[in-house]
Amino acid sequence: MSLKEFGNIVDFQEKISFIKDFFLEFYKGEIEFFNSLEKHFRTRAEFSFYHENNELYYAMFDPQTKKKIIIENIDFPDKKICNFMPILLEKIKANPNLKEKLFGVEFLATKYDLSTTLLYHKNIETINQDLAKLSFELNCNLIARSKNKKLVFNHENLKQSLLVNNKEIFYEFNNDCFVQPNTFINEKMITWVKENLATQAKKDLLELYCGYGNFTLALADDFFKILATEISKNNINFALKNCKLNNVSNIYFTRLSSEELSQALKKEREFFRLKNIDLDDFCFSHVLVDPPRAGLDKSVMDLIKQYDNIIYISCNPISLKENLKVLSKTHKIIKMAAFDQFVNTAHLECGVLLTKI
After folding, report:
1. Closest Cα to residue 111, out of 170, 153, 156, 164?
2. Which among 333, 283, 281, 268 has a CA at the least distance from the CA of 25?
3. Terminal C-alpha separation, the chain
4. What number of CA atoms fall less than 13 Å from residue 132's CA on the CB side?
5. DSSP 8-class letter at 75
6. Is 117 helix (H, G, I), strand (E, B) or coil?
7. What gap in Å lies between CA 202 and CA 162, rounded to an integer?
8. H or E element in which residue 107 lies
9. Could you tell me which residues come within 8 angstroms of residue 205 by beta carbon, excluding any fewer than 6 positions away?
10. How far apart are CA 173 and CA 183, in angstroms?
11. Which residues are catalytic?
């Protein structure tokens, strides 16, 4: 279920009114609202290709009719994406090998880099040389994908930095990582968490769904130690690399599911992946969760409600509300914020700080 089912809400002021009413049973205090840049705010963008009469166009799907719409001038993607799109299209149109069976493209931009992924319904190894030439001529980081195949030209790792409370934090990741799609709002979210933790007594932090360390690195100087979990080996590898980039030594990353972590904390099962980590050395005062759109399942809520303070970052107010029906039995909201990640859409990110009753 999405916000669109609650009246096709896209205006920022309407979102504010909706969120205040929607969470009123759990929180009657002030909700902070952070609006996005109006243009060039989206750093991850995906488009289809439309083939007609030997021509090629970028296209998007109309959410109402599900039909493809040809697009020419758009201003919501990052400027690097907008500038590169017409150049890439002309190059592809001029090469029948590159154009044939091409059905989609994904762009990922940072403050410094741009990655482009072309999606094909054919064996991309047959156009390896054409793709290599395209990457060379455009001096771009190019990835091509087809069923069970992936080719990389130039490189696929991207560098990023975030400015949080006047401190620059450095990251590296690739296109396979989950990346917050609005860098401006991402900085606002991390800053909001840090500022609201500033007045709280803190010991160690437990973080679930840590990814490549988006929040983790920024919170390293707020806690004595951090134990951060993630099931993706790719994300864990980047998280470890990002610790080195920032000279951080108090974060311990481990590849465990929430169920496995719960078993480990209860000493029900030993894990080789924890061989260098002594869980008894941690004294968790806070737990941070940033789950997918489905929210938290029962096992995760049973785990996190043991801790005094919960930081919940949600990309779906609907699943957040469902989770709060359970968490509110043991915890109360003390701070809440809403972040307009996607301007003029029905999506909204929420941040909630809860403390044990």
Report:
1. 170
2. 333
3. 30
4. 5
5. -
6. strand
7. 23
8. strand 102-109
9. 219, 222, 223, 225, 226, 227, 284, 285, 286, 287, 288
10. 14
11. 315, 349
Residue pointed to by tokens 């990353």: 253
Per-residue model confidence as pLDDT tens digits over 235-267: 999 999 999 999 999 999 999 988 889 889 988
Tell me 222's DSSP state. Answer: G
Residue at token pair 């590898």: 237
Give per-residue pLDDT as tens, 329-351: 999 999 999 999 988 887 889 99
Tokens linked to 213: 């360390």
By the 8 A CB rule, do 335 and 353 touch?
A: yes
Which residue in this structure is represented by tokens 């439309």?
50
Alpha helices in the chain (DSSP H): 12-22, 79-93, 96-99, 128-138, 183-197, 216-219, 233-245, 258-265, 298-304, 317-327
The contacts of residue 197 (CB under 8 Å, 6+ apart) are 219, 222, 286, 311
SS3 220: helix
